[in-house]
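Now for a specimen:

…
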Amino acid sequence: MYRQEASGLFKGMNARVTIMAMVMIATALAYGVFFTERLAFGLDVARTYLNPFLEWYYVLLVTVLLFFMVWLGMGRYKNVRLGGDYEQPEFTYFSWISMLFAAGTGVGILFWAVAQPILQFQENPFIDEGMSPDAARVAMRLSYFHWGLNGWAIFSFVAIVLAYFAYRRQLPLTIRSGLEPVLGKRNHGFLGDLVDLLAVFGTVFGIATTLGLGVQQMNAGLNAVFGLPTSTTLQVIITAIIMSVATLSVVSGVKRGVRLLSEANFWLSITVVLFLLVFGPTQYLIAITIESAGDYIQNLMSMTFHTNATIDDDWQAEWTVFFWGWWLAWSPFVGMFIARVSRGRTFREFVMGVLLVPTIINIIWIGLFGGTALYHELFGIGGIVQAVDEEVATALFATINAMGMGIVGTGVSAALVVLIATYLITSANAGTLVINTILSGGDPDPPTAHRIIWGAVLGLLTAVLLLAGGLETLQSAVIMAALPFSVIVILMMVGLLKALNRERYAARTGERAEAPREPWADLGDAGTGPTPVSSDERYKNN
């Protein structure tokens, strides 16, 4: 474990990192509580100032990650296993894919599956005329882009690095382990602490942003179903309830309850999807999903490299920069989850599964939800565009209302409110555990007191960001939080390449990996490399 012995409140934790993280987040909370308007203004100014840089920097980083992951899955290292040379996967394909489904859907996709297609349908830089059939196809393509391969390249990269160093190098399952080949012994000191601190910073704001979006949407659902007012006060109350339930779940450690909740999410999601497919415009939904998916594949490279250089508008900053920042900030959380369930997979299996499966799930999800909304705007009674322009969080429920199903539609809206709530609880639950795992130096069972503390912190930060200005503030916060962690991602790429080259050299020369050279020399047990590597088929013809 990457931690120093501590007693009292910080027993079982890396005291130095935990204290720094608490001070940093407490400062942000205090500033947000007492200077709410200044916080919103400061985030907006910082975002405006950095946008010209981020419009190409995030694009370039995500592009490199996408090509890097494809190379890992198809290149010379494709048969490297996340574990011992002959270790079998911990989970069956069905179980693994099911858990990737859980990671591939959630509060974010529920919020944006309708909102993004409708907003892009009205205006985007790639169409001449908004609100047209062609605009609908382009809107779907752009939504697939922001929820497709590029974003999952970020998640899958962080996950494969964590899994490789944890299960093949026997290092703790925490972010700094990916930098062991780069930092060497310094990874056990202040530099390693700084890496974990930046990971916690990005994760906290990433989770708080997603919770904020989900709470806004849940408020819109309660308004649609029960007529409750849409207000910041009610959103803060919802946040308090969600975080209380999530923290109770984290503290109890009742795996059966968490498993049942996850299974309920799965089946409820399938039920809602089937409802849309059966009672919605079925032929149109199938057709628009297939057509726009083909459009997405055909235009993938041009969208991947698009930096808005010749277009004078804010589209790139408001959409691509935000989404790539959100994926980066969320990546330690989702990456650690994916790493935990992927032990025993080869790089090729991992890349094929983690890049393709969630992307396909998101394409289907957006195709059915977004396609239903677009159909009713093009051929039905409409009203969804107006609802979204007034309040983005109402998009999903305005679509159900436009279907004209009466009491059945009300029941579906109620089911969606429940689905949002369960996704919020499971996201907050898992996020709290991930934050504490990082702060405890890789301990998968961190102290209970810190689970409670960080559950409360996430709830308070979400409430502060909601009070500070809603969606715009949430977007600015996650973009700023992701920027420092993006530097860690680059260093993790260097660290993984160095480790793989070191292993390949050992395989070719017959060197025993138990006697590691730099950068693992003098690291004690934490620096012991993988088990002896035989000259097997992994590097044949390379």
Q: What stands out?
A: The radius of gyration is 23 Å. The longest helix spans residues 36-74. DSSP finds 19 helices and no strands in the chain. The CA atoms of residues 104 and 358 lie 5 Å apart.
